[in-house]
Amino acid sequence: MRTPQQTSIIIRLPAVLKTVGISRATLYKQIQAGLFPRPINLGARSVGWVADEVDALINARIQGVDNEGIEQLILSIHKARNDN
């Protein structure tokens, strides 16, 4: 995804919704189903998503990865977050 020298970009909810073309309700349903990366906390009432993670999901969808494959991708994304 990224090398240690690259800076991660955080995108907020409106940008995520525009980028993936789904509703807010659908986004949160996909997060609950393990089909979309969880947001990261930016503050007391603020969250965002790592742009590289959203891009990885979009690319997987373009490549025709099924939901089982997407679940595995999301698990690896969350594991990579915890390893850093």
UniProtKB/TrEMBL annotation:
Source superkingdom: Bacteria
InterPro entries: AlpA, Prophage_regulatory_activator
Pfam families listed in its UniProt record: Phage_AlpA
Protein name: AlpA family transcriptional regulator
Organism name: Photobacterium damselae
